[in-house]
């Protein structure tokens, strides 16, 4: 670790802490994550999900793990530095994002997810805090501590993802979920980008399902039989709700945006589009010039990395499944409520943080990636 100088603490979590650091040789800013548990061998380190997944993934919209260092039985991840996360970016806003900006953010998120899913992983903890940004121009998926291989065998743990972005199958204790849980989370994030407030801010798992029913309406058994069976096994009965109009809830979203959101937020995971299918929706068909601009944007994003890290602050057919129109009259949109900040205990627990300055300098080993 003597190759890096720590500058300040960025955060603290249950499993690790993160500091802003600087490479002594190049001056490049990095984020250093220090794991809290001890690691007595490299074999232990290499079995970590975060290492297993990130060492195999290299994409412009996936945060880069530069190296792993084990020193005095302490494990450190050295990541490229990003100025902020998407939650912070939204919190700082005093007005709504233009749809063109939201489209570019979602384009990058879906590009990253498509790459992750294609390479055999799903994230399981997609939320604004785990999307790192250099402003809205560059967005990367981060924090793979809960990532799973798609081919791995269930049962999986039921506690994944922050509650507000947790898919119905996870809330209903399914142990055989897969990559569609990430797509549900993208639908929640998409809605939040338009309104700057969470779509389903439940204060418990039961309340989360209730919030979902208030928007999507009561689940019909014919729409998702497996979900009904999961609920029955928990002795849970869905509340009686008529579906809300997404157009009324999110009036600044275009018809194409609503169509994509509606399909991402399907009860049945099998009816949600994949990341690749979502990228083919009309929402992203904004003219040849815009498509070329998005391709150019991705190329420039890679070139921008070296500049960003020196800143001191820092083919399937799409699946359609319509939602019924109800008589529910939603309340007027409000700015982001303080509860969005207060109820972040799970966020804080899962956010990376950092490194202590007073430590021995003896190096046990490192792994460059």
Automatic annotation (TrEMBL):
Region span, Disordered: 309-335
Organism: Periophthalmus magnuspinnatus
Cofactor: Mg(2+)
Location within or outside the cell: Cell projection, Cilium; Cytoplasm, Cytoskeleton; Nucleus
MF-aspect GO terms: ATP binding; metal ion binding; protein serine/threonine kinase activity
Protein name: non-specific serine/threonine protein kinase
EC number(s) recorded for this UniProt protein: 2.7.11.1
UniProt xrefs under Pfam families: Pkinase
Residue ranges occupied by any Protein kinase domain in the UniProt entry: 4-284
EC class: transferase
Entry keywords, A to Z: ATP-binding, Cell projection, Cytoplasm, Cytoskeleton, Kinase, Magnesium, Metal-binding, Nucleotide-binding, Nucleus, Phosphoprotein, Serine/threonine-protein kinase, Transferase
Family: Belongs to the protein kinase superfamily. CMGC Ser/Thr protein kinase family. CDC2/CDKX subfamily.
Cytoplasm recorded as keyword: yes
Matching InterPro entries: Kinase-like_dom_sf, MAPK, Prot_kinase_dom, Protein_kinase_ATP_BS, Ser/Thr_kinase_AS
Catalytic activity: L-threonyl-[protein] + ATP = O-phospho-L-threonyl-[protein] + ADP + H(+); L-seryl-[protein] + ATP = O-phospho-L-seryl-[protein] + ADP + H(+)
CDD domains, per database record: STKc_MAK_like
Top-level taxon: Eukaryota
SUPFAM superfamilies, per the entry: Protein kinase-like (PK-like) (SSF56112)
CC annotations in GO: cilium; cytoskeleton; nucleus
